[in-house]
Amino acid sequence: MENFSFNFFGAVGSQANSDPVAYTSSTEEGVTAEEVPQQQGLKVKDEPSIVTLDNEVALLKGVVTSEQAAAALAEPELQASDLVPRKYEGGFKLWEGAVDLCNFLIQQHQLTPQLLQEQTPRTSLRGKKVLELGCGHGLPGILCQLAGATVHYQDFNKQVITSLTIPNVRANLARLEQGVCREGARYFAGDWEAVGHMMAMHGLGGYYDIILTAETIYSRESQARLLSCIKQVLQPPHGVVYVAAKSFYFGVGGSTASFTDLVKADGILECTQVWKVEDGQSNKREILKLNFPEAITPYFL
How confident is the model at residue 213 (pLDDT cuts 50, 70, 90)? Predict the structure, then answer.
């Protein structure tokens, strides 16, 4: 199986720009966010590798080495670390929580390779509006896009979006049979609080039916920013969020328990565990579901 690396410095040539207007925003603290036009996605040098999931579903992904990531972000620290707080949030690495989230979605929505190839996918994800926060490779979002959802992708680093997420989306959509189409994607880069503010200001507040995120609650500080964004863009009263994470993040302070406590203390959403992996060979992992309380439903009828 071949890995592939990305040409960080050669942008893809494109036809006329069909993207929506790209927005930028910033918070009072000067933290910025922006929409990234898909034409800024970069070319790949080699064939992608394959990630095999449940039900024989397979997705393509790229590989960016630590050296390439450090060069792309001009951050030498990345050669020795998967995380540089507020500079790089681990987007170039495929985390096991993202694979867990894909397998959860496959099981929940009964996805098969055959369904994902249909012109009009007969899946319960078709027509849903999905956002993947902290997307990195974007595999959970790509799975939803293949299943007929409209998907938007967000990562802290624009370089992750242009050199990994967009090429991965393209590679997987290119595997569809001739004449089979899917909804276009949109891409956003920046801090969660700034991204949430920007989306709310430009028609995406309370917009998404489903929000997906994996390995993003590794610290208490990141949890608060993530929850702030979620509350701005999740659609009431039936929108849901799936958070895939390790039960404990040793050395950085985050845990599923601390995030659950944060959500409960905030009081807007409910939080329950819907999936777990405890195989004795790796860290215990979970998927948490966030949703609005049923009591608010009558106010939206």
Answer: very high
What would the pLDDT profile of 148-199 be if each residue is shown by its tens digit?
Answer: 999 999 999 898 999 899 999 999 999 999 889 999 899 999 999 999 999 9
R_g of the chain, CA atoms, integer Å: 18
- In the chain, the domains with their CATH numbers are 32-300 (3.40.50.150)
SS3 42: strand
Work out whether the CA dihedral 242, 245, 251, 254 comes out positive or negative: positive
Query: Do residues 148 and 86 make contact, with C-beta atoms less than 8 angstroms apart?
Result: no
Distances (CA, A) of 209 to 72, 102, 128, 132, 241: 33, 17, 6, 11, 8
- Give the C-alpha separation, 175 to 270, whole Å: 38
Question: Which pLDDT band holds residue 13 (cuts at 50, 70, 90)?
Answer: very low
Q: Tell me the β-bridge partners of 255.
A: 248
- On whether the CB atoms of residues 74 and 196 are closer than 8 A, the answer is no
CA-to-CA separations, 295 to 6, 205, 242, 261, 282, in angstroms, rounded: 48, 21, 21, 20, 39
- Alpha-carbon distance 271 to 293, whole Å? 10
Residue 298: pLDDT over 80: yes
Residue 301: which residues within 8 A CB-CB, separation 6 or more? none
Per-residue pLDDT tens over the stretch 69-78? 556 665 555 5
